Amino acid sequence: MRDGDDPARRLDPLDGLRAPDGPACDVFLTGTVFLDIVFTGLDSAPVRGTETWARGMGSSPGGVANMATALARLGLHTSLAAAFGDDHYGEYCWDALADGEGIDLGMSRTVAGWHSPVTVSMAYEGERTMVSHGHEAPPPDGSALFPACPPRARAAIASLAPGRREEWAAAAARRGAKIFADVGWDDTGRWDLAGLADLEHCEAFLPNAEEAMRYTRTDCPRRAAHRLAEKVPLAVVTLGAEGAYAVDGATGETAEVPAIAVEALDPTGAGDVFVAGFVTGTLADWPLADRLAFAGLTAALSVQEFGGSLSAPGWSEIGAWWQQVQGYAAQDQGALRRYAFLEDLLPADARPWPLRRAVPTIGFRA
Fold it and tell me: What is the pLDDT of residues 16-75, one digit of tens each?
């Protein structure tokens, strides 16, 4: 958790939309939690046969914890179902997510005798190289690791894979959750949309440009977004340095927002932060273009910090950025108006930029 960012005092983007009979959970997600060990301050990639010293290092929960943390820091009540090892790494990740970020781990489990998956990440030249190790968590007593029916939620986030169906996603959709989904690289090389079985349950599908073009057999990411909008209510294609493009399949509305130019230190988790920002805006019922702009802004703020879950911005960072950017004499006022919707959202007491973050570590003894 960032210095001074108390979960109990975070801005609630859904304030005014909540009802006594509404779901207690805003977003449900499940997946693998890694312990991330991130080496920073490297001038170049390590050279074979040599020892390289990094100028900085941090540890934090990674994997699906990147997305869960990004959602929680934006004020959404987040429930995570994941396995945690009963080693010190697992204990640290559990405490960091439950106590540090306020994430509900009521559907998560500690698995006896199972060691936590670990990723070592080395960040340099705006990129990163990762080495991971882990084993699939064994289900308890031969039963499923998690119940097939997730808690009632406003939204759920799924990661689609060819030929795989997640029963929990269908159950969540039946209970009224909006399903947001991304997708990974198709190692089979088939790139068959029909193979993404859970796409039929999705409210929104958020692939990157290359994935979108391959799945739709097009050579233009915007054309790909329109093809995808024939399959899902909302198609969002991220365009890297160009920003993002979205198509509302129900209304035909389109929106495109350019990316914010920043110095990228570490892109780890930026895609997760983008999705979290877009989910937040969608649940808050913002206009489509505002949702894209907010998602891009949160992702841009995240790449200026090292680490996955550590770099996810909260409302304090967003407010500090807004105050700072308005103070630039050479600021393009037309471009600035794209983010004017933030004025009514941000806390009035945003801290000065840059912000001091807590030093990430597995923990000191009290």
Answer: 899 999 999 999 999 999 999 988 888 888 899 999 999 888 888 999 999 999 999 999
Beta-strand relationship, 127-133 and 118-124 = antiparallel
pLDDT in tens, 209-222: 999 999 999 999 99
Q: How far is CA 353 from CA 196, 272, 291, 321, in A?
A: 43, 23, 24, 7
Poorest-confidence range of 60-74, 157-171, 343-357?
A: 343-357
Tokens representing 234 are 């909302």
> What counts of helices (H) and strands (E) characterise the chain?
9, 14
DSSP assignment of 268-282 equals TTHHHHHHHHHHHHH
Angle (deg, nearest 10), helices 270-283 and 288-302: 150
Give the residue from 215, 206, 192 showing the smallest Cα distance to 277: 206
Structure tokens that stand for 3 in this block: 């210095």
